[in-house]
Amino acid sequence: MTFQDYLDQVPDAAQRAALEGLRQTIKKLVPEAEEVISYQLPTFRVRGKKLLALGAAARHCALYPMSGTAVRAHSTELSGYSTSKGTIRFKPDQPLPEELVARLVRYRLKEDGLA
Question: Is the pTM higher than 0.90?
Answer without folding.
Answer: yes
